[in-house]
Amino acid sequence: MLRPLVDELEIKSAYTTFSQNVISGGEASDCVIGYKGDSESAQLVWHADKKLWVFLEPERLTNRFWCAYGVDNPLVHKMVSITCEINPPRFGYNRRLAGLFVVDSKDTIYLAHSGKIGGGRKGIGKTAFMKSRDTNDIISVMFPDKRETDYILIGGIEDKDFLSSLAKFVHEISDFKHETVHGQ
Fold first, then answer.
1. CA–CA–CA angle 55, 57, 60 (5° rounding)
2. Cβ-based neighbours of 94, under 8 Å, separated by 6 or more
3. What are the φ and ψ backbone dihedral angles of 39, each rounded to 5 degrees?
4. Could you write out the three-class secondary structure of 74-95?
5. Exposure string over 39-65, b if 16+ CB within 10 A, otherwise e
6. Is residue 134 left, alpha or beta, with left meaning phi > 0 and alpha meaning psi from -120 to 50?
7. Is the pLDDT assigned to residue 142 strictly greater than 90?
8. Mind listing the pLDDT tens digit for each residue in 97-128?
9. Half-sphere exposure of 168 toward its Cβ, with a 13 Å CA cutoff?
10. Segments making up each domain of the chain, as ranges
């Protein structure tokens, strides 16, 4: 059974490893990120081979690391939209946040996601998204309060193919949102 990282220093170390892994090999791109009700200029990291952009702004929020992802090519589009956020807590745990660093009995650290996705449209949300998932990637996390909660295992943050696993997950969310809104 996996458990969440809750110690602030362990989480910070995991975030450092994670962020280095998702930034490495990408191309910096200045563009505008659009989101519900607003937009802002940002410098993203674009991974053309994965069709994934990453925008990390770790100091933006006090209780969690802000990590946004998208699939639109920022080298082509002047404005891109956030497909999802995976924001792990800075300390302790908070089931209201979608992101979480979890660790197994061999001390391998993974990034996990609660399935909570936004989109502001009918049919897009955690319940529907979790039902659409292959149950093989859903894991149970035992929290310090002895409550088990299901999460989607994205991948080991030190795995050489972690970025591919992350890109696959973000594309699955993008596809789910598109199919929900536009049908198949």
1. 140
2. 63, 64
3. -155, 165
4. CCCCCEEECCEECCCECCCCCC
5. eeebebbbbeebebbbbbeeeeeeebb
6. beta
7. yes
8. 999 999 999 999 999 999 999 866 777 889 88
9. 11
10. 3-182
